[in-house]
Structure formats: structure tokens, C-alpha cells
Give the backbone structure.
Amino acid sequence: MDSNGSDTATRPDTVAGPRSEDVLPDTATAAVKIVIVGGFGVGKTTLVGAVSEIRPLTTEETMTQAGVGVDDTAGVERKTSTTVAMDFGRISINDELVLYLFGTPGQQRFWFLWNGLFDGALGAVVLVDTRRLEVSFDVIERLEDRGVAFVVAVNTFPNAPRYPLEEIRAALDLPAHVPIVACDARLRESSRDVLMTLMRHLHALAAAPEPPARGRTASAIPDANRPERP
Amino acid sequence: MTGPAADWAEGSPERLYVITKGRSGASGGTSLDLVTLIVSRAEPSPEMPPEQAAILRLCRYPLSVAELSAYLALPFSVVTVLVGDLLAEERVQARAPVTMARFPDVELIEAVINGLQRL
């Protein structure tokens, strides 16, 4: 995001707001959010962009002391402040209700972003790349600990090995009641269907609010400290 | 975000410090969410800080705090401080996000499903 930090780009009197066709009607009175979480390069922004009515935007946050205590915080201790960007998009559900979709990195060192993000969120989509399942282990356990309802979407990359979904479910140690679907995040319909899967899951949970007991074990979680960069 | 303004460290800390008068998002006492919709209730005036004037200009129609952060190229925690001040001065109105119990209610879920089906 440093490239956006020039004075010309951020001078408030020259800020370009939304394009006229991107303006929300004055009747918009309430907003809800869904969080798309996954490792870097898994296709979060692609999925958001596929269904968003606006070109995906970026909000950023500076990693503060709230980030200390999770793994890989050497950069924080060194006072090199880390800026973490979250891409997001928007879908107008009806005249009053607006849905926002936020993509957020799944690695532990970015969990400091999650506090405000998941407060009041409808639920989450864990976007998975079969070539790098390890990020998803921690994410899934963390979401379960937070009581966030979620579904798993396996983004099908052209060069990635294909596995049956039930094999991926087993590899992720995913509880039976959590839906898992394959998707192509580049496609609007496919990405829309992922969101529909989440909403139907939420519908089922709302009808029977007691979730099944969790079946995950801590021993199933591998080391996820991989040298990835935003 | 919590912590003193010194946490801004590098990345134009002086600018952020000046904009927020040294406050972080936690000190505002407001509970602004990324998806709280903000609507202007006043016109910008020449003596206002340019960032706050920009918020009033951008929010002539409802705009989420996340969108404000994106358009202003300011961190979310800085925007919450600025919007918090405008709220206190009643220059903007906040349309709070839908609150829910552990899970959203069926009516809300069905509204979202219907909206997605039209996509």
C-alpha cells in the first residue's frame, strides 16, 4: 500500500468518492458483512470482485501492539509498522440492506484484524487452495473457537491437483455439519453459489441453533508458520 | 485498535497523528463498525480540517466506514476517530450495522438469500 501514500493520492480535498453509479440510495439503512478468509493468493479478492457491484476497494490497518503475542511478530517489536490491507466489495441486497464482503488473510499474525471484523458478521467463507491446506487448519479452529458460522469453498485452480471434496473434508478434519463446496472464484455464478451455501447453512443453524459438538483435535494442526508476505 | 499514538511508528505517522490529534480509535468512545453507514447532516465548511470536510462531502449519500477508509486512503482506526468527532458534533448520522444474537435471524437470512438470487 505504500505506493498509494503519496500526497497527491491522499490529499483529502482531491479525494474521488464513489462513481455516481456506485452511490448507495438514501434508503440504505442497514449493512451486514460476510468475511472471506484464506491464505495469500487463494483468490479472496477474485471472489469478492466476481460478485461485487463495485470495483473492490481496499481498507487498511496498521499493525499495532494488538498484534503482539501471535506468531511472527518480530517486525512489530522492531517498530517497523506493518500495514495490512483488506479488499472488500459490496452487494445491494434490497433498497434498505447492503451486504459487504471482506477478504482477510488467514495467517495467525493477521488475526489482530479479526476482532472488529467478525463482530456482527453473518458468517465466513474459508477459501481453500488444495496446494496449501495448512493455513486453513488454524483458520477453521479459530472460527470454531470464536463461534463464527462458516462454510469451506475449495477454489479450483487450473494446475492444482483435484481431490474429492470428502477427501479434503477429511484432510481438514472438518466437522460433518460444515458444508464444503468447490468453486471457481473467477466466475460470478460460482462465487454467488458459495455465498448462497453459507446463507443456507446459516438458515439451517437459525432453525436449529444448537450446533453439533465439535470434533476437532488439536493434534491435527500442523505448523502453519510459513514465510509468506502480504 | 488500541494503544497510544506512538504505535503508528513509521508510514507517515506524523500525518496520522496530526489528523487524529494524537488519538487512536479506542479513545473515541464510539462503536463504529467497518459497515456502519455514515450519512452527512451538514455541509463542509472552510474552517474544518480537510479530512473531515472530505467525509462530509463523501457521505452525502450513505457510505460505510470501510469505504471512507478506502477513498480517503486512511486506516480504519483513523477514520473512526474522525467520524466519531463528526458524530459528536452531529454533523453526520451513523446507521448502525444490523445487530444479532449468536446467529442472524431467519428474516435477515432470507432477505440476503433473495438478494443474492437476483445477482
User: Anything to note?
Assistant: DSSP finds seven helices and seven strands in chain A. Residues 18 and 165 of chain A are 40 Å apart (CA to CA). Chain A touches chain B through 66 residues (CB under 8 Å). The domain at 26-209 of chain A is CATH 3.40.50.300 (Rossmann fold).
